[in-house]
Amino acid sequence: MNNLVTERLAVRVMRPESPRQAVSFAKRFRAPYIAGGTWLQPACERDRQWPVQLVALNPDWPGFLGVQETDGGLIIGALTTLDELARHPLTSVYLPPLVGLLNRVAGPGVRNLGTVGGNLLAGGDLSALALALDAEVDVLAGKGTGGRPLVQWCLDRAAGDLLRSVTLPDCRDWRFFVEKLGYRERFSPTRATVACVHNGQQLRLAVCGEGGAGRLVVTEAMLRDQGVRELGDLATVIDSELEALGWQCTQLRLAVCRMLEFGLAEVSLEA
Amino acid sequence: MTLDGDWVRNATSRMDLTPRIEGRLAYTTDQRHLPGLLHGAILRSAHAHARITGVDISRAREMPGVHAVVSAADVPGPNRFGIVIRDQPVFCDERVRYEGDSIAAVAADTPEQALAALDVIEVGYQPLPVVSDAALAEQQVALHNSHEEHGGSNLLARETLERGDLEDAFSRCTVIVEHHYQTPRQMHAFMETEGGVAIPDDNGGVLFRVGCQSGHRDAEQLADILGLAHDQVTVESTATGGAFGGKDELTVQPAAGLLALKTGRPVMIHLDRFESCRTGIKRHPVTVKMTTGCDAAGRLLAHKVEAVLDTGAYASLGPAVLENYLDHATAPLYRIEAYRVSGRLVYTNNGVCGAFRGFGGNQATFAVESQLDALAGKLGMEPSAFRQINLRSPGDAGSRDQTVRWTAPPAEVLAAAVASPLWRCHDAGTGRWLTGTGMAMGAQGNGLGDGLPDSGGGRISLSPAGHICVEFGFSDYGQNIVESIIQSVCNGVGCRETDVEVALGNSRGPDSGPTSASRSSVLVHGVLARILPGWMNLVRGHAAGLSGHPEDRLVFGPGGLYFNDHQVLSYRELAASVNLDELSASASQDFPVAPDAEQPVGRYLQLQIATVARVAVDRLTGRVRVTDLHHVTAAGRVIYPPGYLGQIEGAAVMGQGMALTEDMTTRDGCYLADNLDQYLIPTFHDAPVQRVDVLDSTPEDDPFPIRGVGELGIEAVAPAITAAIEMATGVRIRRLPVDPGDLLVGMAAQEQAL
Ligand SMILES: Cc1cc2nc3c(=O)[nH]c(=O)nc-3n(C[C@H](O)[C@H](O)[C@H](O)COP(=O)(O)OP(=O)(O)OC[C@H]3O[C@@H](n4cnc5c(N)ncnc54)[C@H](O)[C@@H]3O)c2cc1C
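^ Those are the sequences you sent over. The predicted structure of the assembly is below.
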């Protein structure tokens, strides 16, 4: 039966009783998960491609909601909304720049519904910071459950993988630089978001945006080996690594290079 | 005088603006309670350019809930509309020329059923080559067959304005600058998308309640299309959620009217944002080459302009936009010895362009003001000093040798801008954010322009409830013209605001002409100045008869007429005592044009603005933030401060959008953005701090002390912003919207050169 309002087939929303059942539904029906729906809905509407089934995720499932302090760092449930994360007292303790960044993600309506998991899965603004922090993800997959680095999951994620939570290391005395380049001050899709993190010993860099999300491991290696050297060299390395990651637009690469150079100077200055 | 918050608070303290602010005001598209209402939907073209090989609506007719399906064969009158040239089909049957072209329409019980029926309409297309580059359009296949109208080419109109011996003037120039400029296809992005309802009456006629800008003109076109007598069509333009020129042309009315007549029931069509983006009119993109020269002292001698305007698939108001573009490209504020300003308006498959706040003028001003900065730079002169040398004086003729009425000397406007606190801070900054200030000036003529019939009327009467009822044909689409009218009536009569009732936008009422071209306030004031004295005498005479007091001692006041400071008759008592038709008056006037020219030239009533912009440019990314705008305006007397302020500030933010983010780009004739999450207008966080100053030296007895400010605020914003960017970074941008990437590359090149 056609759902006539949006010219799409009626979508069947499945409401599994447990995360396990969610994974099994997702695999069996090849159905995507839906959290806040703020990314999924406009993406489907624009492409005029609607899934036949959706698997609704339930924030009442243990571990999927909220922010928790543990010995290993901060665990953020995947269904925590962006707004909840921004308001949570632990966020400003652990990651003060995140509050400012979240304020620049979409608008209040989207932040109210949009979730941390959905943002990471859609390569949203949080990805760069999470990658640079070397976040761990707790994923329920067909074969089992477990923690693994986000960087790795980004590379080998399988359809049906269900993200339960993200763990950030205890980064209270780390230094950060996070910057978003949008088209306007607010309510702009990200063109490029960059993150530089210094944990006292090591620098980590990551980007997300128009060219895709990723850690700049080559640049990091160069910095590890040689320190923050002649900026000219650094810019060349960043530029070619971005290009290899899929960042085609040379002008945007130039902007990302300059943001990273600036960020590196900021986090290294204080070191 | 600076218009600040106090002005607004004082003027609005007694008004209930909450419904407007909260979006609860009932707009045209909110009329969903009408008994028997059906919902219409329009099938749009699947191609930017194609021959139609067949349209089969038979399956759609059988769909559940469907009451009627109409296509080209169902149009009883001419299957064409358009304000200047009727070249746009109501429904295409041979050829589609843009991806918003209509092919058929359906009325059904629910919007969902109407959309489902559209899905089963079968259209055969044979794609044709797409004309997408305006510069090459004249060499490509003609989009319109008619040789008589378009000479068999995509050149819709061509015009040249000339003055003096250009070659000689160029030969005497010490400095000549030549640059190309490009401005974007901007979208109106009104709050309420196009829509309204068509309601059939018992006599075969139709009443339209729609968002529109000219009820009378629309009624005429609609009567023709529907094959009805003109008096069988009525248009009521009730409160409309924004227009800015985008509702000047017919939108959903022809389809809604045909469906209403076919079904005998009211039909509502309301475009969603996707359809509005795809089908709605846009601002003309312009590419122009400008060559301008001056002598060693900075006196402008020669100016040559060659512009191409892309009007898209249909003419709409394109020819008038071209004319206004050219007028502004003559640099109306400045004395130039000789110029040749020419422009070509071409058809393409890139959507449809038409009226938009500024109406071509601001596109031209962007280039003209940038040229002046370039010349000043070459001479090593301050941009303001360069302008000072060339500005016209109040006694001078206009750029087209017409008589001009300014409301303040241009030099005073410039001096006030130079005195702006913004203009005085010139630091470029050395940290991440580079700051700069720029300034530009602009002139704006009120009225429709050259040669177009431009007149308007109004009516005043007493309502049975005892209100002073004033009627005009204008539409209220957010500018709150009602308040300006109330203020004018209160000032003229001496009554209080609650005594006045304003009725707008009914095509059965007085024809005031379109609500466009910053003309409404001028006409409201002019018409009221004509009718109020006579009408007040009429009422006084009648009151004298009723009260026994001498006519010449009766005074209008709050609530009624007074004798020796005592109210002797209320307006209600007066209304009850007479046949109300006897106490009414109406008048109409031609829009003031330059009186001395052989052929009347518009731009007689001239307004001016100088905008000072301050920007911060991110050295890392090239992103531009406009932090402050200071406008010095000379636009006549301020009758309603919130309206004046709102128009200037609102238009300026629109100009900022055009300068920085807004462009409806196309690929192969198809828009690349389809909604407001891709087409990016400024948000509250992007809006700068603004200050609006008013200079007004119109004499007390000036016949035209009130001017329209609907477009003035957009005039000089873009060149002021690009001048500020240049001040901050050393890079001059000549293509709008400013591409941060281009700017960054320019900045990096500058750094390398250091
Ligand atoms: C107008 C607008 C502006 C926006 N602006 C921004 C912006 O500035 N910056 C930005 O980063 N983003 C932006 N977004 C994108 C996005 O909506 C948000 O970032 C949001 O966080 C997505 O979360 P969600 O819960 O709504 O995801 P959904 O739409 O529900 O899901 C997104 C994707 O993730 C998958 N998914 C969701 N949760 C899980 C999970 N737990 N495990 C596995 N898969 C999962 C879904 O299957 C889907 O593929 C914007 C969106 C809109 C509509």
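The radius of gyration of chain A is 19 Å. The pocket of flavin-adenine dinucleotide is lined by residues A 32-40, 42, 57, 78, 82, 105-106, 110, 113-115, 117-119, 121-122, 124-125, 162-163, 188-190; B 677 (CB under 6 Å).

Shout if you want it in another format.
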